[in-house]
Design goal:
The chain is an all-alpha fold. It folds into two domains: about 35 residues; about 100 residues. It contains four helices and no strands.
């Protein structure tokens, strides 16, 4: 069974499209568009490189470990509209200042829940992985006795 997926359409040069995408990515990389560490991490963890379910699960757990914490730091408030821009930024900052206390409390609670869920998932995964290894050893021993 082949794992290659091929899509064709009359009049479409898929090779040219792929080359255009690669050239655009290289240009954007040279311009620093992908300098964000999250983009680099995602690129290094390309799902196409994952060959089996264990690799995918390990990748997924790694992503969960890196992303389970909600960022509760202040953020820059900007306004792209020139008209009333400063007034809107000031209004948004005032609203954020009023809501920050409640938002931080919610985010803190969410971080606690996320941490507990991640710990529970890791614990269950370790338990099941150990159980599967024990069963595989037992099967191997039984098969070696039979032969």
């Amino acid at each position: 069974m082949s794992e290659v997926l091929e899509i064709n359409a009359p009049g479409i040069d898929a090779g040219a499209i792929v080359e255009e995408i690669r050239a655009t990515v290289e240009r954007k990389r040279a311009e620093g568009a992908y300098a964000d560490p999250r983009v680099a991490r995602a690129e290094r963890s390309n799902l196409a490189n994952l060959q089996n379910d264990d690799d995918f699960f390990d990748f997924y757990m790694s992503c969960l470990r890196q992303a389970f914490v909600v960022d509760i730091n202040d953020f820059a408030i900007i306004e792209r509209r020139a008209r009333f821009g400063k007034l809107l930024v000031s209004l948004k900052k005032t609203i954020w200042g009023l809501l920050k206390f409640y938002t931080y409390r919610l985010w803190t609670q969410q971080n606690q829940i996320n941490g507990l869920l991640l710990s529970a998932l890791e614990s269950a995964e370790q338990k099941h992985r150990k159980r599967v290894q024990e069963l595989e050893k037992r099967i191997a021993a039984l098969e070696s006795e039979r032969h």
